[in-house]
Amino acid sequence: MPIFYSLIAKNYDLILSEYTDYAGNFQQITRMLLYKIKKIGQNHVNNNIFCIPYDNYQYNYIITDDLLYLCMSFKDNINISQKNYLDENILICAFLFDLRKFFLTQYNYADIKKAKSYEYQDFDNTIQLLIEYYNVRPSFTKSGLPVYNLINEDKNIIIENLNKYFNSDETLNMTVFQNEAYNIQTVTKQNKVLLDYNKRKEKIEQIKTIIKLLTLLIGFVLVLYLFVHFFGNKENIRH
Predict the structure, then answer these.
(1) Given the DSSP bridges, would you call strands 159-161 and 14-20 parallel, antiparallel or unpaired?
(2) CA 102 to chain CA centroid, nearest Å
(3) Per-residue pLDDT for the chain (239 aa), expressed as one digit of tens each?
(4) Is-contact 6 72, C-beta < 8 A?
(5) Which of 109, 97, 99 is nearest to 18 (CA)?
(6) Dihedrals φ, ψ of 78, to 5°?
């Protein structure tokens, strides 16, 4: 196979979570492909597996209820024993099914529909674990089902090649390489997005607190005014 990169997006191009430990221009190319995928969105069928060949790599994805689960893999021709061999496309399907299952099990769909970009970065670790698990060509899915049975049980699965939607003259050369420094920068950037979100949330909470204090102060002043006014009038009446 192996799988290098994976993401989950809402409405085709709003990325909720992604993971890779490689560098290169493939993330830039992925964004370009997501834009094109969105343009042909009406041609997609829920729960079908779609494939976009790209250089020596391929993008596979599945769409369910406006959520897109994608992985990028190398077209691997490594010779391994027939006994341990599992078709790479079946493994990719199993990976995408598990990715979807774990994500929807961990999060509420009603909350996902309101989510903003990169709001589910805590799921990145789960994507990493799934990639590592499937890159050793398991016979069982991460959720414990036999890989072949998982695919055979769903007779509606169609692996559709979408190469017809992408012009060859728009193809960029894909670069993929391991680079720890790049990975650190990516994590730092994602953490900054999360930090900015937390800062905005903290400011909103501070504003709410100030409003509550002002409300209490105004209430106290109003009560004090009524108290003084009431007892002041009583004193005037006595005299």
Answers:
(1) unpaired
(2) 12
(3) 689 999 999 998 899 999 998 888 888 889 988 888 888 775 666 767 888 888 788 889 999 888 999 999 987 544 444 434 346 678 888 899 999 999 999 999 999 999 999 999 999 999 999 999 998 888 888 878 787 666 555 544 545 565 555 554 455 666 777 655 444 444 444 445 445 555 666 777 788 888 888 888 888 888 887 877 776 665 555 55
(4) yes
(5) 99
(6) -65, 135
Are residues 147 and 140 in contact, defined by beta-carbon separation less than 8 angstroms? yes
In one-letter notation, the amino acid at residue 4 is: F
Alpha helices in 76-123 (DSSP H): 88-106, 109-113
Q: Are β-strands 159-161 and 49-54 bridged in parallel, bridged antiparallel, or unpaired?
A: parallel
**Angle 72-138-175 from CA coordinates, rounded to 5°:** 20
Residue pointed to by tokens 């790049």: 182
Sequence-distant (≥ 6) Cβ neighbours of residue 9 within 8 angstroms? 15, 16, 34, 67, 68, 70
Going by C-alpha positions, the residue among 68, 89, 75 that lies closest to residue 174 is 75
User: What is the pTM assigned to this prediction?
Assistant: 0.66
Whole-number Å distance between alpha carbons of 180 and 22? 8
Residue 98 carries which side chain, given as an amino acid letter? D
